Structures are given as C-alpha cells and as structure tokens.
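Supplementary Note 2. Why include the ligand at all?

Several targets in our set were suspected to adopt different conformations when bound, so apo predictions alone were not considered sufficient. For every target with a known small-molecule partner we therefore ran a joint prediction. The input for NAP is given below.
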Amino acid sequence: MKISVENNSLKVPDVVDIPFIEGDGIGPDITRATKKVIDEALRVSYGNERKFNWIELLAGEKAISKFNTPLPDDTVNKITEYRIALKGPLTTPVGGGFRSINVTLRQKMDLYANVRPVKYYPGLPSPLKSPEKVDMVVFRENTEDVYMGIEFPSNSKEAEQVIELMAKFGHPIRNGSGIGIKPISKFATTRIAKMAIDYAFENGRKSVTIMHKGNIMKYTEGAFKEWSYETSRQFGDRVVNETETAGKNMSGKIVIKDRIADNMFQQILLRPDEYDILLCPNLNGDYISDALAAQVGGIGVAPSGNIGDNYAVFEAVHGSAPKYANLDVADPSSLLLSAVMMLRYIKWNEPANLIEKAFVDTLRDKQVPQDLARHLGIKALKTSEFAESIVQHMSAR
Ligand code: NAP
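The joint prediction is reproduced in token form.
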C-alpha cells in the first residue's frame, strides 16, 4: 500500500510500497546488499507485521535500453505517487539531449533540501585525531544559487547583452567573459531554514549554524544569513542567538549562529564538536558535505536524502563507479545508511537503530569492504559478504 498524507503528516501503512531505482555501475551490487539488510532488519524488528514491498522503477542505462530515455515519465510519476524512493547512483549519459535525472526529480517533486548527516562510526578510517567529535547534519538548499544553471558562454549573444547591461549599471565586465547568475530568494531560504530548525528540535540538537559568504556576496549569501536569522525569530525564545546565551537556561533551546564559509571549513576540522546542524546555500552545502564526509570514512559511507514537503528521495552520495560494476566489491554503506534515513523519515526507528548498531559491530570486527579495508590495512569483504555480516550481527543482537 502507498504512503498517504493526512493533516500534513505521512500516514504509513504496515506493508508499504517502496519504489527503488537500482542504478548503474555498482548500483545493482549495492542495491541488492541494501535491500537484504533492510528486509532482515524489518523482520527482526517487526516479525511479519511491517514490511517493505519493493517496486523497481527504471532509470539510467536500464531505461535507456528499454525506452531510449534515462528518466521515463512513468518513473517520475510513480515516485511522486508513492512519495518516497530509494535511488542508486546513475551514470550521467555522455552527449547532449538528456535531462539531468537528479535535477528533474528535484524540480518535479520540489525536493528543496539536500540533507546529509555526517557522523563518525567507530572503526571508520579518519584523518582526524578525534573523529568521534564529528556529528553534524548538513541542510543544503537544493533549488537555487549558481546551480540553477543560468550561464552564458564567453562571446555568446546573451553574455554580450548582460555585459552591456552591467556597463549601464556602472559595473564594467571584461569583454569575452563567461557569465553565471546566482539567485537566492527569501522564499527558498525561509523554507529550508525552517526545516533545519524544526529538525534540530525534533532530534534534540543543540545548534544551527548558517554557513555563508555574506561578507562578499551581500545580497545573495548575506541575504541568506539575514533571512535565516529572521526565520529563527519565528520560534520565539526557543531559539537563542549565540551572542545572547550568557546566563540563560538553554535546556530545550537551540542556539543559532553563523560562520563565513572559509572559516567554516577550518571549524569543522579544528572544533567539530561545536557544530551540529549546518544550514547552507546550495554551493556551500555541496562543498562542505564532501569535506565532512572525508573526515569520517569518505563518500562510500556518506548518506543523503533529498527532501521536500511530504516527498523524499534517499540516495547514495557517490556515483556509479563503473570500474567496480558487477565485481561485488563496492561499499554499500552510503546507500544502506540512506535507507536508514528513509526508515527514520517514515518513523520506523527500531529497524533503523538496529542496522546502525549492527553496522558498528561489523566495523568493530574489522569486516569491511575494500574502500575501507585498504585504509585500515586489512583484508576486504565482498559487497555481498559485508551485507551478510551486518545481517549476522543483527540477528546476534
Ligand atoms: P564515483 O562514481 O563516485 O566514483 C569515484 C571513485 O570513488 C571510485 O573510482 C572509487 O574510488 C570511489 N567510490 C565511489 N563509490 C564507491 C563505493 N560505493 N565503494 C567503493 N568505492 C567507491 O564518481 P565518478 O567516477 O566521478 O562518476 C561515475 C559516474 O557516476 C559518472 O557518470 C557521474 O556522472 C555519475 N555520478 C552520479 C551521481 C548520482 O547518481 N547521484 C553522483 C556522482 C556521480 P577508487 O577508484 O579510489 O577506488
């Protein structure tokens, strides 16, 4: 049965239809491993009472060979109809003419927040002295900024016209420049700021930090900062500016603060325990989330969700790593932990917690796939063996 929405919240049936896109390259290997672990976690947690009814949707190379398009309308319509989906990585088709799959999904379903939890699991390789201090969630605005793709090549008619217009505004631009436009709106900023602060309260977090380069880009990133603070004031005295915390009882309250983007990069390395939720415009969010992932195991283990109002697509952070396709060697952790996010999104927390604990047990026993094994200098498990090991650790709990 499908998920529905009642009183603006999700109504999840006990046997729930979950669409999935297997993905290209390593997609089939990591999707198979992920589904196996999820199904077992549901069985251990709920017996036969709650289950996933997996529904495969086509996208990427499978869809091109069948329908000559990487993203058939039917796939987009079904994800919209079912409200959530799990998505493996897709190879970007070479040559023009195809719409970007991620962008199309994001636009059609208005998935305006890219949410990336980054935390250290004991046993992961890390370049930090104290990686256990890393536990942050990045909220990256997903619809605006330079990612809107408003760009004009050097010497194009459009670029020349923009250069002429800027000259009229008293801003000379060198002839032959390429032009890119960076729009950031109050509407988009307000809704992601609200989502990030709501999340902070719902998950017992302590602070929200706005990451911006507003000292240079005053009316885009600077406005992002101002509008985010403005949104935080809607929460009344439950949200406190970091400059006003002295002498206040902060129990049940959230601190709001901001950091300039370049400083933010050193903060996450030097003082990671002082940061919790990071609220970022699109480009900053893109950069900081991979930098953070590198601190705690890399993109092979970093999960993500693209989330809108009652719609969400959870996906591996990495790409299709074609050189490892069908070799049963890829790390399924990124997709698996994205599926854990999906379980939490529908509030099925028992299997989510169970998988996380078994994942940690498996790492502790040094049973890991090759991307982690080579850093740790130990023998690697195959993708399928790693999934089996997590399943065994779950059953043992
Ligand atoms: P990639 O697929 O992420 O792979 C880059 C490297 O990262 C791999 O060669 C491998 O490193 C490592 N890696 C990534 N995922 C891994 C995993 N699960 N297990 C083990 N190692 C992993 O990036 P890419 O090679 O730039 O892109 C390949 C294709 O994926 C392109 O067509 C790209 O457009 C697409 N892509 C899709 C998405 C998406 O669907 N969301 C995202 C990014 C890229 P080593 O070589 O060091 O072992």
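Residues 27-46 form the longest helix (20 residues). The chain has a mean pLDDT of 94. Comparable summaries for the other entries are listed in the accompanying table.
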